[in-house]
Amino acid sequence: MTDETSGPESGAKVPLDPLLLEILVCPVTRTALRYDAEAGELVSDAAGLAFEVRDGIPIMLPEEARVLDPG
Amino acid sequence: MSKAAIFDRRAVRLHRDRAASLVAHVAPILDAVAERLLDRLDDTTHRFARALDIGGRGVVAPRLAARGIETISCDLSAAMLVGAPGLRVAADEECLPFAAGSFDLVVASLSLHWVNDLPGTFAQIRHILRPDGLFLAALPVLPTAAPLREALIAAESDLSGGAAPRISPYPRLHDAAALMQRAGFALPVVDTDRLALAWRRPDSLLRDLRRAGETNALRLREQRPLDPGAFAAAFASLLGEDATMPLDLHLAMLTGWAPAPGQPKPLAPGAFDTPLGAALGDTTE
């Protein structure tokens, strides 16, 4: 529990596997995604949604995605 | 997703989230189906490099990995993916987040029967397959659970004068075949299989359904809650001589290929110009 390098609550980001970045598209618009490694999100500019990458698992569910601020 | 949706996808996801830590208890059933489905890989000389496992609940991905196939697992529930070998993606089968031609094999073992738009999902699967990629699916079809459905309706009507849908409206076998055709798969093959299952007690059946994430996700389910008495009565009415209630899983095993040049194709009508007699070496004309 005190291990700071692992666990979902530690804040340590498990990087996204490059293969996933290659094959994943936005589930809503089927367009390319931009990986924001800092935020740990896959961003669909076309849909205005950011999909969280949780422990290396992209959560590609539109209803779970963060809605981007317009502009 | 649409107003005609019959399944509550949020409920499907919730059921799978809750089942994630318990699904190992029902792994033997899931694994028996996966084994039979993946047997079809032995019927082809194709070698597959990259597979997508849709909703395999921990039994499909290890079998694919054991065949040396790089496997990506997806599930509507991220919790259900914990422990899966290889790469994992939480994804909705109704809007798959993969680019065209990403895989040369897609496997859906017992995972597409809570999907509202099956034609749409099949078309998407074809889209994410490379040309000459293979789609394998095990889909429960009627008469799965048909006796239980009838017994439940009768028991609920007896007790309360009405009944609500409790059991998924499984497609028929020929619906499954038509879906493959409609989605444009080449060389589609649909065959049947049956897994004989039986339960001794109504509560253990409900428990196993919960462990598999297979409890009722019909949108109309909330109109009236299931009366445990009606369920017990329906269960009891179906008990066999061995004091168990049979609940066989009738499966459509679907195989189809993403179209590609060079695949065997049926000849067009009128393409035959050799008389049968000539082909048989008949010289009596």
From TrEMBL, chain A:
Top-level taxon: Bacteria
Family: Belongs to the UPF0434 family.
Record-given protein name: UPF0434 protein FHR90_001584
From TrEMBL, chain B:
Alphabetized UniProt keyword annotations: Methyltransferase, Transferase
Keyword check for Methyltransferase: yes
Keyword Transmembrane helix in record: no
Transmembrane intervals: none
Highest taxon, organism lineage: Bacteria
Disordered, as annotated region: 265-285
Molecular function GO labels: S-adenosylmethionine-dependent methyltransferase activity
The Methyltransferase type domain, residue ranges: 52-136
InterPro entries assigned to the protein according to its UniProt record, in alphabetical order: Malonyl-ACP_OMT (IPR050602), Methyltransf_11 (IPR013216), SAM-dependent_MTases_sf (IPR029063)
A Pfam family matched in the record: Methyltransf_11
GO biological process, one term: methylation
Name by which UniProt lists this protein: SAM-dependent methyltransferase
Biological classification of the source: Bacteria, Pseudomonadati, Pseudomonadota, Alphaproteobacteria, Acetobacterales
